[in-house]
């Protein structure tokens, strides 16, 4: 057995609590056997027969490696090495078969070497990785050599392999590598497979000399630029909930970059060669760090290997549908209150964080060892030098004699000085920050450390400094509760980041509001932040608002308790502590009310006012809500949600200020009619009196006077023309919605049919107001968005929407059939489960029964739910539609046929059962029982 294969079979213990790997018995050396089949007695078999032999052999390679890997006899890295070693047998056998098959020529042959490059050259292959080959010569390839290359490539392609290939002379290699960092990198991993070894030795010597002549600086710059472009494409954050295992930040490519830099600078083959004072570079990494690199390599390779096998292709992105499968295959199961998939993903995120940290730690060491140590200059002013800092390359670094281990508060002073002076932290200083972050435990409760930390948190660019402290590992040591949310993900499609990264993003949004950068997007919150008396408490509340996630139970309640303990340790006053705890407890109050309740209902406003009680707390709560929502992900915030939050804020603010935003119902209705009449001045009196008599009180309290005036014109046009159906659309760009108003004769199921038509049109309903008028007509208003969260604004789409509503109401549109044709969600999202839930509340409103329905969103869901409500004889007064990723949370205000709340328990039970059935997907509903003949 080859030494490379033996090394590939070293047993390790898999992560996540899985059982230990059983060492694999030595596999048979299949190379002689394969060549014997292809060239028996020196005579090559026919090509078709050879292809069949090679296919069987390739199948055995994949089957054997997969079997051993899935039996946990191999880790991912060991499997990748064995896959590459066994692939060598295939490639070398094809080379030998080609050489035996092609007839000799009389002309002088130009020797060439068959070389593996790229990942294959490093001796690692995933199941569906490309195989990169270089046909290396020292002179122009001879005609027979060219036929040899073509013969091999066609065989490999016929086997279904993805082959990257090049034919180059040694001189070509050097010229191409000098001008292309990608080629240079691939050649760093070059490994001879077959052919003339002397040619490869000549290349290796020339390539080593060329690298020395070119110097390290240009290669370092090229790899940094490549990495920056890669991160920009696949995610700057290592904490995206659907990470790219290979190319994302903290992924395999970042680890490979460290290897390439080390290989280029020092000629090492393995990272552990950098350990020890006598190692190249003077001991750039510790034994512990070398083990961390090995663990990360192995873990990420194991994930990648599983991902390829599960996907059946070269899939590198760990999407939602693959996460539970890969996690289960790696042995992650439910532990306490945390699902197996969440445990698996947390381990992955902690690993990619380690990779990002190792990059920040090792790369500057490689740079300085290769290019020389920086000149450490005394600080230009006495204050900086007295604080224990100096400048190197114009960046901040600890002065000689100042050690983070002996005085940990220097770590926070370093960050604060960098911020205050507008300086960058030197990479070597950040390296020290990472290595000594464990000493941050000594700073807990330290007054100076608390003061600096709170100043960093609430000061300029707080998110940037917080992210650096988190990446260095300092934050988890300084705040032990923070360590529990690092790398913690929620297995849903709503949150884009892990909990810790989401929190840092929220702090960043506060900074944007503070700098007035969001004045057009969130004008009220931007204005309010400058008026706050409890600014420091707001920043700490934002830091702690999700601190109790992953503990089971209500994270708001648990987080409020954590805040009571953490805030005094951070040096906050009792008053600030109480404010922070209250904000954490109620940080979802504003958003849940705005998106789930009827803010036109006076009780909704009074209920919030009773909880908030003070204008300052209301201001704090609104700003925290905006920061929290915008930090969830780019698609969560839109103009419609911003409008709802603003309207809710102003209504509650008026109540807290003692205003008359909630006077007696009759007085408010009278005022609304007066305002509408003033806008309709000049209309015939009978026409005006008819319109003013049409609406019930709920209608007059649901719209502004301008909308009432538009409705009056719709009613007049319908009366004049005798049209049974009138539809009007209006694009509200500021709110990112399109308003659709339907006026027609009321009948059971009207809402459901309109909702179905809108679903077929590709419109998502975000809010709705349903009004039956005194003459039996219906005036229903829907606010809709397209799939991207924007308003319907194209004329042809608006026209189609109106046509579909008309066809649905006339019965000419087969809703069920058309809804099934609507595009379904991507397969990767189907793995996210949403337990159905129906909650009926008779206390949230004085006049309506409030129904909250939670379920998996799908085209036509609202149609199905409203049809179920109508079938129970209920009237829908308003609907509030919210989606959180694939979760739909829809709230309906309903009455019975007599206009009263539904309080009969039997009817409520039937309603609950009907709604639960409507939440089932068509695929999950039981097939109808055939009628008996």
Automatic annotation (TrEMBL):
<dbReference type="GO" id="GO:0008773">
    <property type="term" value="F:[protein-PII] uridylyltransferase activity"/>
</dbReference>
<protein>
    <recommendedName>
        <fullName>Bifunctional uridylyltransferase/uridylyl-removing enzyme</fullName>
        <ecNumber>2.7.7.59</ecNumber>
        <ecNumber>3.1.4.-</ecNumber>
    </recommendedName>
</protein>
<comment type="similarity">
    <text>Belongs to the GlnD family.</text>
</comment>
<dbReference type="Pfam" id="PF24931">
    <property type="entry name" value="ACT_ACR9_3rd"/>
</dbReference>
<feature type="region of interest" description="Uridylyltransferase">
    <location>
        <begin position="1"/>
        <end position="383"/>
    </location>
</feature>
<dbReference type="Pfam" id="PF01909">
    <property type="entry name" value="NTP_transf_2"/>
</dbReference>
<keyword id="KW-0677">Repeat</keyword>
<feature type="domain" description="HD">
    <location>
        <begin position="499"/>
        <end position="621"/>
    </location>
</feature>
<keyword id="KW-0808">Transferase</keyword>
<keyword id="KW-0378">Hydrolase</keyword>
<comment type="function">
    <text>Modifies, by uridylylation and deuridylylation, the PII regulatory proteins (GlnB and homologs), in response to the nitrogen status of the cell that GlnD senses through the glutamine level. Under low glutamine levels, catalyzes the conversion of the PII proteins and UTP to PII-UMP and PPi, while under higher glutamine levels, GlnD hydrolyzes PII-UMP to PII and UMP (deuridylylation). Thus, controls uridylylation state and activity of the PII proteins, and plays an important role in the regulation of nitrogen metabolism.</text>
</comment>
<dbReference type="InterPro" id="IPR002934">
    <property type="entry name" value="Polymerase_NTP_transf_dom"/>
</dbReference>
<dbReference type="InterPro" id="IPR006674">
    <property type="entry name" value="HD_domain"/>
</dbReference>
<dbReference type="Pfam" id="PF08335">
    <property type="entry name" value="GlnD_UR_UTase"/>
</dbReference>
<dbReference type="InterPro" id="IPR013546">
    <property type="entry name" value="PII_UdlTrfase/GS_AdlTrfase"/>
</dbReference>
<keyword id="KW-0460">Magnesium</keyword>
<feature type="domain" description="ACT">
    <location>
        <begin position="850"/>
        <end position="931"/>
    </location>
</feature>
<feature type="domain" description="ACT">
    <location>
        <begin position="739"/>
        <end position="820"/>
    </location>
</feature>
<dbReference type="InterPro" id="IPR045865">
    <property type="entry name" value="ACT-like_dom_sf"/>
</dbReference>
<dbReference type="InterPro" id="IPR043519">
    <property type="entry name" value="NT_sf"/>
</dbReference>
<dbReference type="InterPro" id="IPR003607">
    <property type="entry name" value="HD/PDEase_dom"/>
</dbReference>
<keyword id="KW-0511">Multifunctional enzyme</keyword>
<dbReference type="InterPro" id="IPR002912">
    <property type="entry name" value="ACT_dom"/>
</dbReference>
<dbReference type="Pfam" id="PF01966">
    <property type="entry name" value="HD"/>
</dbReference>
<keyword id="KW-0548">Nucleotidyltransferase</keyword>
<dbReference type="InterPro" id="IPR010043">
    <property type="entry name" value="UTase/UR"/>
</dbReference>
